[in-house]
Every structure is written in structure tokens, then in C-alpha cells.
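Crash report, auto-generated. Payload:
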Amino acid sequence: MEVPGNKITIMSLFSELRRRNVLKVALLYLVAALLILWIIDRAVSGDVLPIWASQFMLLLVAIGFPVALIFAWVYEITPQGLKKGVDVDQTQSIVYKTGQKLNAAVAVLAVLGVAALIGERLLPEFELIRPEPVEEIPLRPVYDSSEAAGVPKEISSYTMANGLRIIVWPDHDIPNVVMYNFVRAGGRNEYPGITGLSHFFEHMMFNGTTSRKPGEFDRAMEAVGGANNAYTTNDLTVYQGWFPRSALKTILELEADRLQNLAIDPDVVERERGVVYSERRLRVDNDNWGRLYEQVRATAFVAHPYQFPVIGWPSDIESWTQQDLESYFKTYYAPNNSTMVFSGAVSPEEIFLLAEQYFAPIPRQLPPPPVRTIEPEQAGERRLVIEKEAQTPLLHLAFHAGRAADPETQQMQLLLNILTDGNSSRLHRLLVEEEQIALSVAGVQIQGFDPGLVYIYLTLPPGADIDAVEARVLEELRRVAVEGVTRAELGKARNIVLADFWREIATINGKASALGDFDVFTGSYENLFSLPEDVKAITSQQIQAVAAKVFQQNNMTVGVLRSPTHTPGAGK
Amino acid sequence: MNVVRAFCLAIVLFVLATGARAAGVSLPAHERLELANGAVLLLSEKHDVPMIGLEAIVRGGAVSDPEGLGGMAGLLAELLQHGAGKRNSKAFAEASAAVGGELSVSAGLEAIYVSADFMARDAELMIELVADLLQRPTLAADEFTKLRDRSINLIKAAKGSNPGELLPAYGNAFLFGKHPYGNPVAGSETSLANITQEKLQQYYEEQVGSDRLILSVVGNFNAVAMKALLTKAFGGWRPAAIPLPSLTAAAKQTGRRVLLIDKPGVTQTYFWIGNIGVSADYPKRADLDLANTVFGGRFTSMLNTEMRVKAGLTYGAGSILQQHSQPGAVVISSFTATDTTVDAIDMALKILKRLRDSGIDEDATESARNYIMGQFPPRLETAPQLATQFAMLEQYGLDVAYINDYGAALSAATADSIAAAIDEVYPSPEDVSLILIGDADLIRDDVSQYGPVTEMSIDEPRFR
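Recovered output after restart:
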């Protein structure tokens, strides 16, 4: 049933609330409470006040709110002072003026609040009540255009007196930090007898120091919330740490300890050979792809150490000596042979200070001997076949190509995107979708300090005519050398590079990884940010020229893995 | 009045923000919207890079594969990307690649997943592609035959190249038996060969539709505009013809049994030891995560420390808790040289017994707590990660509190509550399935000590 008077009563209550300035008092109260709570919260985060202080204040403010409203309803300010509202002659009432004063007070407080908030964001030094380093700076890089990246100003680099180079990219999106240590030690620094030693150190670096037993490094790191990993390539050994900001000092202490005091305990070395052997069985011996890849590389390079498998030849894994390990560590794990990259909830200043504290005592060493050998130009195609039980044959093609820092390498990378990246790529469309002569095709450019390989690999269906597929791949590669690529393909490849760029730097891990790679291989991390522009400038003519140079039969190594009983045409 | 509301809201947000900071990790706010046809939309703005992440989940997946036609959902997921709307297979692939977008469709046990990651400026195009592939797939006969044959051959290729990859397929098939969780998502050579284009078309109509859809979008967009775009793109879709199949929990296994998959010439044995565990909404999740982190979830775990770091038997050992709507498997997985097969399996079973008998100590618990919390923020860092997280919560009917209260639940875990979770979830070493891929001639006699052995060749065109 409707109650006609109800609405009117509510309306008049509302106007009375307004007349008596109750609403304005409420507003003023809320604004003031917000400010007070904010100040208390700052003080709590700065450890000036205990944590319960903000909850207590919140409770106080909540209790005070109805009290203030009742007070405002009952009392009125008059020229004679505070009086009960019912006692005031309504013709003499100055509630309107009081209302204006309340409005002004709200405005002042609001301006103060906004100013404080802005101040806190713009001036990280604004730390009257918070002496600790700022934990959260809400400002983060804002990219106004997806086309022009530019070098973010917040990135800083620094080289210590002992030669250790440090790069820092602050990003306070999450309270975590990523640390990469790029050590210039990889397969290219090895020689027969010690192949796989760089990778072995990747394992030994987690196996104890003079003051920490094997396993303690990982235990200490995980106990403070950190995780780690490492990888080795033909050029580098890269150590990665992912941890909450609160673990920063522990991680740096652990890193400095192993760089300075690594224990190379003979018993631990023996046991770790077993682990590396297990890794070799997993990745090479029982993996058809890994087995063929190892042989193709060893055939494509006859002189340069890129011919060695990163994991090492089995006989070398079994026999490297204590002396080999000690001298390798001293030479290659020197601060002047490393670049460290930090990304995440840190500031460059604090990292540089901490680095001085932890890494300055590590002495500089003589630079490692240069890799002198240059792979002689290949003078004719090379082939190899591995016969092994396999229902589906593998076909790998390798071509000598440029160094990571060569402009041609970027052009080739764009071409590989066009040829093998994704379901719309040329080779995938032709060989996998249309002619269905391959199950999959992929291409990668092995880029390093020295000239590397363009590597194209295919998995073929049972009973495939392997020679015919090879001929078909070569035909398509040569077509690029003759006809170039289309405008649409070029546009697509550029967009893929651009989107991948944004994907990578969307995470603190991607940031650290990309900065380090560019700094180590091209001489400056700044080159990362010109990537979108550099790629835009690449022309179809350049791509055609690099294809003509690389995709020559005399420059090619072909590897096949197939069953001893493989018969083309069977099994279809 | 608006000013007052704005300030009240500011105070509420402020208090919420304070709370979130205290708890450690929390999800950003998101909006949930259910369309009239049952589709659920989840949206959250994120403006750090000019990118958008999209995750669409269509409930169903391999558990809804028809009898004898395992791999149906997996094959459909492949085929959805090969022509839809006005685009044929080639034009479809080119449309997303041309703008640097990534778009992939895959199947899991309980859903088909569409994941897209693209530049914000291309949102309209990419959403059109997702809408097309879900609502207007061509399912062309020639594409079907090609993909089915390729899927069969890719299983053959995996058997040759890295057999360890296939352990979960063999393991689930053996452990779950006839229960739908035993269905290999990719199917087997035999079951794939039985699928026809007509049957696939029928499956699509019955099992894919708006009432099964959860669409989650996070990134650099305006939520109002995005909502309009998605409502227009998905509001007109029809529901699936039949209701979502309901599942029951698989019975835990008692006793021990062995499946030995023979791969002559292989120089190591890959093994998988497991039983039925718990479901994704297991209430003691934080206690269980602490236990599993210590047992086999990180480098210094009991399994990896004993088997790799101390004994040098393997490159890696760990334990996995499968998360589905019904109880999934709890599994120990590793590999070792053929002649140390028994040493490694014995050691794994001994460590399992130790976990059940002695639990995990206070130091290890504290370390695991720090580890889980320390590694958590990077898992919710990017737009695609957040999109997946929101969709996953919706899929399993979990509240955002599942994430936001997780830190508190970890802190609240006690030795007793963790011990209770261990007792409930981890099997006794006497009650497990052992699945081994190895050179049977060299290990057959040795592994028969673990229980009755079923043997099959890796070349057999099936997983069970």
C-alpha cells in the first residue's frame, strides 16, 4: 500500500538536513578523515607508527562520524556562540554563512589532500615521516605511442672500478626484482678436452662456496622467496634470479659469495658429472632433434669452436680436471668479463651502492684470451645422415650467416619471420598446409659474437621423400633471393617484431633479458629501443640481398635423421 | 551529492587498498557481466603497455570426447583456427599475423582455450577473429583430413623424439582407466583415425556454445567500449545443444601396479608414479601448496635434493598436483639412466613415505611460505596472465578471495593443518601406479618387484 505522505516527509527531512548544514559537516568530516587516515598510513608504512595505529584510527573515525552528524543536527553556530538549533530564531540564523565556511574548509582540505597526493607521486624525496627508501613509486613508464619507443630515461648503467658493468631498469609494477648476470663464457671459449666446461660451471655455481655447503645457495635463496636458473650458449653463461624486493640484499650477498669464493670440491665435481650426463641423455642421446642438431653443428663448423656442443662431448664430461676447472673459473668469472642487469622494484642508486658494497672486493683479472679462429668460407655443401629408429624423419639445413651485431642479421631475422614464423609463414603454408610434405617447419638464427648459422628444421611424415622435400625447401629459399618478399609480408614481419618487443618488455624478466642481450651483443642496451625503427627501415631489396648471400648450396650443411629401414612412399 | 559520493567511495577504496597491501598479493578489480545467452564476460583495464590479453574458455574439453573418439576436442581446437567467417585457412592465419597478434586455440581436459595477445590498436580485428572462430568456423573437409593425419603423425614424432613428453598421456590413461580424465587430450593414433568430419561437426554443435563461454579481457582499453564490442560480438551466439556433461570423482587406487612402455635402445628410464589426488577447489589449498613446494615443487625440494643434488641420479625430479574440477592426479616424475632405474624409483618411494610419516618441519614450511609469496607477483604481471587468471577462477567457480586471501591462508597454515592435507592427498607408496618408459628387456625383471606389470610397445598406436 502506498503511503502518500512518506515521500514528502523524506524530502522535507532532506531539506532540513541541508539547512542545518548536516550534509556539509558530513562532507567536511569525510575529507578531514581521509586526510588523517592517509597521514597515519604513511606513518605506518614508514615504521613511524605501529601497524594497528591505522586500524585504530579508522575505528575512531567511524565512531566519530555519527557523533559529528548528531552534533551538527542539534547545534547551530550563531554570532553569540554555539546554541541548540531549536533555540535559535530562524530569521537570525546564519546557517547559510556557516555553510559557506564549511564549503571553504572542505575545499581547502581537498586541495591540501590533492597536493599531498601529487607531491608524493612527483617527489619521491618527500619523506618527512618515512625515512626508509621508497618502496613503491606509482610512476611507471608511460608509452604514449606504440611506434616510437625511445630509450626510457629511468634506465641507468654504471661500470665499477673492477670492470663489472651494471644496468638497472626500475619498474615498480610488482614488488619483485629480476637479476641477470651475463658471463662471457660459452662454448666458443672451449677447446678439445674441455668441451662442455662452460655449461658444467653453470651447474657448479650452485654447488657451494668456501663458507656454504652444496645446496645451501638454493636453500638460502628460496627461504627468502627467491628462485633462480641459468643457461649456457655457445657465447655466454647467464645466471638468472627472480625474487621479492625484500630479498635483494640476500641475493646480492649470495651472488658475490659464489663469484668470489666458489668451492670446486672434487667429490661434488664427480657427482655433478652424473647430473650433467643425465641432462645429456635427456637432451641429446634420447632426443632425435638434439642428436641431429649436435651433428649438424659439428659438421657446419670445421675450425671455429661453435662446432662444440654446449653440453660437451661425452669423453670430455668424463675427464676434465680440477686444474681445468680452476683456471677456467679464474679467467672467465671475472668482474671485467660480466654484465649484470637488474629490473623491477629497485632504484639505480641503491643498486649501484649495494654493488659497490658486495662486488667491489672481487678483483679484476686479465682479459680472457680472444677467440682467434675464424671459420674459413665453406667451399661446398656438406651432408650427414643419422640412422636411428624413428617413425618420422627429421631434416635440418644450416647456412653460415652473420654475427649478432651485423645489420644483415636483423634483415635475416625479418626474413625468417616471413618464412617460418607462425601459421601464415611461407614455408609453413607451402610445405605443411598446401603440399603436406612436412609435419612442421621452423627456422632460427643462431646469433653470437662470431658469425653463426641460419638453421631451418623440419619434421617429416612417415615415408617422406626426404630428398624431394629438401629440394622444395631450397627452391623456396632461392625464390627469395630472386624475387624478394612482398610488401604485405614485410609489413607483417615488422608488426610481429614490434608486438614481440612490447610483449617482452611487459615483464620485468623480459626487460632484464632484453637489455642484457642487446648490451652484450651489440655494445649498448640502447639499441633495444631503436629496434622498432630499425626494422621499419629494412627494405625488400636488403632482404633479397641477404637471402642471395646466405642461401647458397655451397654454404649449406644438410642433416637427416631417419630409420635404417626408411623407404620413401611407405607408411603413408 | 556527487561530491559526497565520490569522497565516500574514495574512503572505501582507500581502506581496501590498505587491506590489500597488508595481505601481499591481490588481483586488480575486474567487472563481470553475464549476457542473456549465458556467456560470461570478464574485463579489467591495464595500461602499462599498449597491449591486450584475451582468454576465452569454452567448457567441455577432452572429458566430453565421444566414446572411442579420443582427441575430438583437441582436433576441433586445431580446426577452429583453419578457416572461419569470411576467411579461409590462409587468410585467417594471415589476418592476425599481419598485425603482430598472437592467436592460438588448444584443448585441455575440461575446456577449449582461445588465447590472444595483441596490440591495443588491433582490438576490433582480433575480437572479430575470436568471435568468428568460435561461432562461425568453416570446419572444411579438406582441412579436417589434413589436420587429423598431421595429428596422428605428430604423436608418432613425439614417440621418437622426447618420450618423456608422453608420460602424462600414458599415466592418466593407466591411472584413471575409463574415467574421462584418462582421455589423452591429443587422442591416440587409433582414436584420431576413427574421427570423421561429420562427427566433428556434430560434436561442435553439441558441445560448443555461448552457455559454455567465459571470455576474459585485460589490457589497454576503455571498459565501456570493450563491453559494447564484446556484447555485439558474442551476444548473438546460440547455446550448446546439450548440457555440460557432469563428472564424478575417480576412485583412488589401492595396491600397486606397473605399466611398462617398451622403447628399445633408449638409455634412460622415464617414470611417473601417482594416484588420484584432489580437485581445484580443495579447501586446504594453501596447506597443500606448502607441502608440495617442500616435497617436489622447487629446486631444493625433498625429491630434487635427494635424487639430483645428493645422489646425482637424475637431472631433475619433482611432484605435480593436477588441478581439475574433480580430483586430478598427484604425481612424482623423473628420469634416470637405465641401470639406476630401481635405485631412483626406490628413492622416490622412500621420500614419499618420509613425507607421509614425518611431514615437513617448521623451517621448511617458513621457507616454502616465503618462496610461494615471493614467486607469486610475477605470475600476475601481464595482461594475458591476468586474463587467464580471471577466466580460471570463473571456470572453477572460485572467488577472487581465492587469490586475495591466499597469503593469509599461507600464514595461517600450521604443522597440523599441513599434516592433514598431506595425509588426505599423498598416497601411501603401497598404493600407486608406476608408469615407466624404458628399454623393457633391460628393466622388465627388476621392476616386477613393484607390482603386476602390464607391458606395451611405444609403437602401439594407443595409450591404453
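Post-recovery validation: Chain B touches chain A through 81 residues (CB under 8 Å).
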